[in-house]
Design goal:
With 592 residues, the chain is α/β, with parallel strands linked by helices. Among the domains are: 86 residues, 2-Layer Sandwich (Gyrase A, domain 2); 113 residues, no CATH class; 180 residues, Isoleucyl-tRNA Synthetase, Domain 1. Helix content is 54%, strand content 11%. Strands 7-6-5-11-12 form a five-stranded parallel beta sheet, sandwiched between helices. Strands 1-2-4-3 form a four-stranded antiparallel beta sheet. The chain has a three-stranded antiparallel beta sheet with strand order 8-9-10. The longest helix is centred in the middle third of the chain and has 25 residues. It binds one RNA strand of 77 nucleotides through helix 15, helix 16, strand 14, helix 18 and helix 21.
Length: 592
RNA sequence: GCACCCAUAGCUCAGCUGGAUAGAGCAACGGUUUUCUAAACCGUAGGUCAUAGGUUCGAAUCCUAUUGGGUGUACCA
């Protein structure tokens, strides 16, 4: 039993003994003591006064005295209004540092037997990745890492949208205007090449719409009748009919795209255990429609289309199968959900998808529940806000997107420039420099995107480069390098035989207290699916360490025992920084 | 129209299931380097937590209404 649990239990006992009342655990709120007061752990006593029939202050006093007697590690307390601040013995904290925090496995929870699938990235194969995808990828990767640390078994999957009218658009434009161009022939990454033809299609399409409009058609008519869109639709039909020429072209262009994506994924450092392809899964779901009809969860309209009525749940009537018997988006998602469960039998399944699909997932999950799928309760839509530019939303067809590859290389370049400016890379080899710039540039980008709560929309101004100072990735990386530098200049005792006897000063204590919180932070982040909580935590930690570093000499500490203690504290901090950053998918350098 | 999400310092964001005097970073201003990496540290200034009610011993946090912004509401995906 850890100290916090012990305190909670003892508070219950106290209420029982002092006031003869049963206190539910939920009513006991432990919080960090605010830094202007003495102590490390605070209990809010307001909820207890209905049992004590005394003032909050008096109740806190009674409770404080009781706890101090019962729990050895509580060496003092003070009461401010209704707040009971407990001072925990220094040797408790020192012991925490040596016994727990310094462990290699600190922050890795034992397996909890839960299997979780994280589906993320899920790109379309008609254009390269942009900043919005980057947010998605980093979120998915990080959430998976956090869940793993919390003890789950995690399966990362990518559901690639590799078919449909949008792919046909790129294919058609390439066929018409491409002159046999290939990634090799034009020295362009495959996904960018395909994206180029997607834009070309759109230009041509718009041109044709204008022509038809001047010829007297309405906007809607023109959109439907433009020859190029018709051709694209024909191509899609041929694709579905298995036309060999179309399939070959499709395979060729998708290969280009995949090699491009693979490069970007590698740079971002994300990976997947399994890929699902919509070209395989789009036919799925029809049997679920049957099942739903049998169970009367769905109903058929006279024209043959199949629907579900969700008005009782505050939603609408939703089409699940077209009158011609073909699937819609949700049909295949129903089927794919079943397929994924059959494949992995996971307890939870997380979909990392933007918030514009909130409604879709609400409907999807509700339908699966109504169908009586027991696993449906484990489905979770990790919805995140859009990444906006100052000019508004990114639109790939209009070319107002921040391209992922461009952004990454810009970040790396900026890192290079900043680092050279500071003149800190003497003695680095060419390769080491390159590696460092990658680390810093990507660290800045990843931290920037992950530090905000997923739900919130994110503003990215391409004209204002991402910061390298303050609450940033490089600041935390720098703190790590700083610690490593100190450690490399000293020999850290391998045994902690000489237990630290002097009193801790307040920064040292604060530092251990925050290190001690790390496992709890992981649990919280895992529960809320929120890398932002890890980001905020590691920033707090780095900031506090820098304060410590500035105020207290380490190598030049007066006594050897103090020096050894501070080295241990530094080493533990570096380790937790490194682990935390790893949960964000960010590497930290030993020198920078 | 209806549904969902968001609104906290000039800017970008924290603020856990309600708890102390609402916190950081950037930008601004001032200071710190013969001492372990100044991508750092210390300080000053900056707030009607969108507005109005309500619940509560206590509300940025919960409820209701209003305003402003976003998204969705297709036999598109």
């Amino acid at each position: 039993m850890n100290l916090e649990e012990n305190i909670i239990k003892t508070v219950q006992q106290a209420i029982q003994e002092l006031y003869q009342s049963e206190l539910p655990v939920e009513q006991i709120a432990l919080q960090d003591t605010r830094k202007e007061f003495e102590g490390q752990i605070t209990i809010v006593t307001f909820p207890f006064i209905k049992f004590s029939k005394k003032s909050p202050e008096q109740t806190a006093q009674d409770l404080g005295s009781y706890l101090q007697v019962k729990i050895e590690k509580i060496v003092g307390f003070n009461v401010v209004k209704g707040f009971l601040n407990l001072a925990i013995a220094d040797d408790f904290w020192v012991d925490q540092l040596y016994s727990d925090i310094s462990k290699e496995s600190y922050g890795q929870f034992p397996a909890n037997g839960k299997k979780v699938m994280v589906e993320y990235s899920s790109p379309n194969t008609n254009k390269p990745l942009h900043l919005g995808h980057v947010r998605n990828n980093l979120l998915g990767y990080s959430v998976a890492a956090i869940l793993e640390a919390s003890g789950c078994e995690v399966v990362k999957v990518n559901l690639v949208n590799d078919r449909g009218i949008h792919i046909c658009k790129s294919m058609l434009a390439w066929q018409k205007f491409g002159n046999g161009e290939t990634p090799e022939s034009c020295q362009l990454k495959g996904d960018h090449l395909v994206g180029k033809y997607y834009v070309i299609f759109d230009k041509e399409y718009k041109k044709q719409i204008e022509e038809l409009k001047t010829a007297g058609q309405t906007e809607d008519e023109a959109k439907k009748n433009a020859p190029i869109i018709r051709e694209a639709q024909e191509m899609l039909q041929k694709w579905e009919a298995g036309d060999e020429a179309v399939l070959n072209l499709w395979k060729k262009m998708n290969r280009w795209v995949y090699s491009g994506f693979a490069e970007t994924y590698k740079k971002l450092g994300v990976d997947f255990e399994k890929f699902y392809y919509e070209s395989d899964t789009y036919i799925l779901g029809k049997d679920i429609i049957e099942e739903g009809l049998e169970k009367s969860v769905f109903f058929k309209k006279p024209d043959g289309s199949v629907w579900i009525d969700l008005t009782a749940d505050g939603l609408d009537e939703k089409l699940v199968l077209r009158s011609d018997g073909t699937s819609v988006y949700i049909t295949q998602d129903l089927g794919t959900a079943q397929l994924k469960f059959n494949d992995f039998k996971m307890d939870e399944s997380i979909y990392v998808v933007g918030n514009e699909q909130d409604y879709h997932f609400k409907v999807l999950f509700l339908i699966l529940q109504k169908l009586g799928k027991t696993w449906a309760k484990g489905l979770y839509h990790l919805s995140y806000g859009m990444v906006d530019l100052p000019s508004g939303k990114m639109k790939s067809r209009e070319g107002t997107v921040v391209d992922a590859d461009d952004l990454i290389s810009e970040m790396v370049n900026t890192a290079k420039y900043r680092t050279e400016e500071l003149g800190k890379v003497e003695g680095f080899s060419i390769e080491e420099k390159q590696e460092l710039y990658q680390m810093i540039g990507l660290g800045a980008l990843k931290y920037f995107l992950l530090k905000v709560e997923p739900k919130k929309r994110l503003l990215f101004d391409p004209n204002e480069s991402i910061d390298f100072q303050g609450n940033t990735g490089p600041f935390i990386q720098y703190t790590h390098a700083r610690i490593k530098s100190v450690l490399s200049k000293a020999s850290l005792a391998t045994s902690h035989s000489g237990i630290y006897t002097s009193a801790l000063n307040s920064v040292e204590r604060d530092l251990i207290v925050i290190l001690h919180k790390y496992p709890e932070v992981i649990q919280g982040a895992a529960k809320d699916h929120s890398p932002a909580q890890i980001a905020n935590y590691v920033f707090e930690l780095a900031k506090l360490y820098n304060k410590f570093y500035h105020e207290e000499p380490i190598l030049k500490a007066e006594e050897e025992s103090v020096k050894q203690f501070r080295l241990s504290l530094s080493a533990a901090t570096a380790a937790v920084i490194k682990k935390s950053m790893k949960l964000l998918g960010i590497a930290v350098p030993d020198k920078m």
